[in-house]
């Protein structure tokens, strides 16, 4: 019980720390005189790009943004999050409290663009771990390690992402000790996926694509996956706060609703659904964002070798960070 309390307190502490650290802007010092213009930060993931069409073509290394917006509702999107879920296994009819964390990001290497129209190559890294919060030591169930290279592209409201990445999955020693009959298959694979996205103004985004395993262990796993989804947000923030005068630049609150669907050949094309809804906190002139989201998932477990055998239904809440 003590570990569960520490886990929850740790999540709250992370939220508070990240909220306070958001006071530093990528665009420079935000201690400006009152009549100074706001910071100008071009983030091609979230801003409308038409007004930048007259910009000159540039080539840049280590860009701070990307041309393709991350798929927020994709459980395997490299990002930072801490999530609590109450989960029911459809087969065993058992319930468990699961803590799930993600640590990862796309790091831009090189981009060539005119405004937001162009292409970019990056490195992706991601770690996804799940913990059983019903055990005294919050035992590690599974951890997935991802590394790969995404190539992203944008032209107007169209954007696309082509990725090649490797995943290796590892069952926790504590989980194996508590389940002596469990057999690990040593899951690892390389996958190529492509996703195309279209933005309707600033409030609705639709996307779809597919993936194929080019190498996998065990070799009997079927290769193909289809994926599609949407993200909806209000065109303008619905609220703002100056946090009792702590910040001169207000914090903006934007409601979000997003859902990701995956249909996998190895699961007889069963459709897995992940729904997120809540609000996003951001500040004008800043790249960092904090999201508090309610989560509902129905389908095969998205992580590790459970992906091919365990159907689940879960409900929870989490904090998602973007730097």
Describe the structure.
This protein is mostly beta strands and about 325 residues long. The chain contains two helices and 14 strands; from the N terminus they run αββββββαββββββββ. It has a twelve-stranded antiparallel barrel. Strand 3 and strand 4 (about 115-130) form a beta hairpin. The longest helix is centred in the N-terminal third of the chain and has 20 residues, at about 1-20. Mean pLDDT is about 85; it is low at about 15-40.
**Stretches with pLDDT under 50, minimum 5 residues:** 14-39
Alpha-carbon distance between the two ends? 32 Å
Rounded to the nearest angstrom, the radius of gyration is 20 Å
Largest beta sheet, briefly?
A: 12 strands, antiparallel, barrel
Strand percentage lies at over 45%
Gross geometry? globular
Number of strands: 14
Mean pLDDT: 83
Strand order of the largest sheet: 2-3-4-5-6-7-8-9-11-12-13-14
Put simply, the count of helices is 2
The portion of residues assigned to helices is under 10%
Oligomer: single chain
**Which series of helices and strands comes N to C?**
HEEEEEEHEEEEEEEE
């Amino acid at each position: 019980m003590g570990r569960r309390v520490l886990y929850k307190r740790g999540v709250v502490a992370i939220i508070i720390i990240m909220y306070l650290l958001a006071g530093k802007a990528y665009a420079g010092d935000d201690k400006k005189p009152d009549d100074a213009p706001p910071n100008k930060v071009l983030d091609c993931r979230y801003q409308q790009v038409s007004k930048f069409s007259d910009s000159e073509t540039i080539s840049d290394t280590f860009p701070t943004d990307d041309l393709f917006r991350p798929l927020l509702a994709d459980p395997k999107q490299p990002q930072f999050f801490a999530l609590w879920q109450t989960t029911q296994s459809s087969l065993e009819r058992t319930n468990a409290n699961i803590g799930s964390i993600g640590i990862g990001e796309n790091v831009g290497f090189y981009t060539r663009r005119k405004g937001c129209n162009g292409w970019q190559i990056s490195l992706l890294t991601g770690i996804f771990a799940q913990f059983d919060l019903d055990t005294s030591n919050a035992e590690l169930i599974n951890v997935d390690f991802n590394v790969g290279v995404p190539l992203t592209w944008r032209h107007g409201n169209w954007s696309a992402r082509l990725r090649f990445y490797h995943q290796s999955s590892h069952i926790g020693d504590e989980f194996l000790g508590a389940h002596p009959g469990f057999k690990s298959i040593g899951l690892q694979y390389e996958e190529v996926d492509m996703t195309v996205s279209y933005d309707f103004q600033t409030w609705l985004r639709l996307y779809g694509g597919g993936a194929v395993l080019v190498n996998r262990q065990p070799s009997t796993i079927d290769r193909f996956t289809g994926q599609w989804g949407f993200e909806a947000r209000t065109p303008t923030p619905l609220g703002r706060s100056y946090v009792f005068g702590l910040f001169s630049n207000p914090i903006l609150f934007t409601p979000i609703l997003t859902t990701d669907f995956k249909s996998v050949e190895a699961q007889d094309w069963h459709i897995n659904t992940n729904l997120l809804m809540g609000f996003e906190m951001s500040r004008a002139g800043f790249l960092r964002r904090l999201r508090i989201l309610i989560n509902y998932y129905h389908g095969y477990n998205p992580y590790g070798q459970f992906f091919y055998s365990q159907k689940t239904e879960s409900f929870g809440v989490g904090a998602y960070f973007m730097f």
